[in-house]
Amino acid sequence: MGKKSVASVNKSKEKRQARKLEQRRIADGMSYVTSANKLKELAPLCKELLVYRNKDLEIDMYIQKVTELDKKVLDWAIDLTERNMKNLYETCAWGWNKDDKVEQMMDDSAWYLIAKDKNDKLQAFSHFRFDMDFGDPVLYCYELQIEAGGRRRGLGQRVMGVLERLAAATRMRCVRLTALTHNPSASAFFRACGYILDETSPPKEEISHYEILSKAIEAMDEDSPKENSDSRIEIAGS
Ligand SMILES: CC(C)(COP(=O)(O)OP(=O)(O)OC[C@H]1O[C@@H](n2cnc3c(N)ncnc32)[C@H](O)[C@@H]1OP(=O)(O)O)[C@@H](O)C(=O)NCCC(=O)NCCS
Fold first, then answer.
1. φ/ψ of residue 128, rounded to 5
2. Is 157 in the pocket of ligand 1 (CB under 6 A)?
3. 238 in ligand 1 pocket by Cβ < 6 Å?
């Protein structure tokens, strides 16, 4: 047993430091996710984005936890998901299982962004969650569904903009989502919104019917411009 060389001692030290940093990064991420999920209201973090007007649409949005969502609104969201996605699910390895989808949509950790038009007609929703995913704090977009009559007017892009703002204000590392590869309109849409193949996406040779897309999010930190300062949440212990 010889004496360890200086180089090998330094290497072990570097490894220990890297491990510590990684543990710290994960612990911070978990605390951001916990803090985000404890928020009573998300609207103050993104209020100016919740009103969307263009020449054909007058939309107001609100955000609630699934546990606070009106049953009629949840039923509409489930129905819209079935109308939009059933065929796509049926034509891939997943298949369509309504009970599983309803269970996923009703999970206690689900947040909902709901968009209504000026006649109070429900037009779009997103189901999203703050979660740890592969060691990263992420805002995971589980669902983005727009009524057929409300599409191609920038509403989907605005909804993603709201999710991105929420992710920044709660210090999530990215907005991540799963997209079916045989849904070309969704693929074109997410790419147009700046989403790219995520590092956690499975290799195409192994799984080809879905891919993981994401958009990196820059946290709103202490040096952020003044207008952002009241839309960032305080994280305990940070
Ligand atoms: C995909 C979806 C969310 C897009 O929402 P949207 O409100 O229509 O999208 P936007 O109007 O914000 O589109 C922004 C850009 O995305 C791209 N895009 C959107 N829909 C597209 C389509 N069908 N084909 C090609 N590009 C498209 C365009 O570049 C568009 O900009 P442009 O209209 O100026 O050309 C909507 O079509 C939808 O709900 N589809 C059914 C459900 C679904 O597939 N959800 C996503 C998977 S969970």
1. -140, 165
2. yes
3. no
